Amino acid sequence: MEKKNPMKNNPPKKLLCQSCGMPLDKPDDFGTDINKSRITDYCHFCFQNGNFTEPEITMQEMIDKCIGILTQQGIMPEEQAKVMMSEVIPKLKRWQTE
Ligand SMILES: [Zn+2]
To answer: Quick one: pLDDT at residue 9?
Structure first.
C-alpha cells in the first residue's frame, strides 16, 4: 500500500508552523515554550510561552482565518488561498486527531 504525497516540492529544511502553516523563516516567527525558548513546531501567532494563543480554535476556523490573512495582505486571491489552506492545514500536526 503506497501513499502518494502531493506536496513534492516541499524542501525538507523549510519549517512550517504546525498549526497555521506559516513558513518559519526568521527567529521572531517561532513560538516559545514555557521557558521562553524557541520551539520549531509553531509560530508565535499560534503558540506563546508553552500554550496555544487560541486553544479553542477549530481546524475550519484556522483555515478561514488564514484565508482572510492571505487575502487581506494581497498575498494571493481568495480562491487560491482556499485551495491551498484546505490542502495544507489538515496535514499539520496540530490537527492530526488519530
Ligand atoms: Zn502558526
So the answer is: 55
